[in-house]
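Today's session is about reading a structure prediction critically. Students often jump straight to the picture, but the first step is always the sequence itself: look for stretches that repeat, for charged clusters, for runs of hydrophobic residues. Only then move on to the predicted structure, which in these notes is written as discrete structure tokens rather than atom positions. Here is the chain we will use throughout the hour.
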Amino acid sequence: MSLLPYIVMYLCTNNRLRSVIAQRLTHKHYPTHIQAISAGVRHNIEPPLDFAVAVMKEVDIDISTHVPTHIKAVKADVNLVISLSPEARHGALLYADEHNCETFHWPCPDPSLLQGNREQILWGYRELRNQLETKIVKYFSEYLS
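Below is the predicted structure for this chain, in token form.
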């Protein structure tokens, strides 16, 4: 890899769930080689969802103090934008055209839409966390090798 740190932006709808989880998991696995940031395509000021905070605490990552960022507020020289929601995909393509960077779309379920009891909903959030962690490790371990 020629650029260190490599800067990846995870882009989601509100920057309260999927993108925050991906950002923090990337930092956990690649703290020196990859700078991960996250943003949303909607203006949002609400903190991360409680279920997201809970499942990240299970893996010793605290996202409770995360402050959502809008994509237009990102000032970093991003190398790659990974969109995680259908709405964010369009935003990622526009951003990439303006900033000359790569994009990928990793479609992810939105566990905030789940219904059921607390344990059923937590299961959905865990699935998202685990799915993102698998994708992150697979992609960046190949990239860094």
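Discussion point for the tutorial: The first helix runs from residue 18 to 29.
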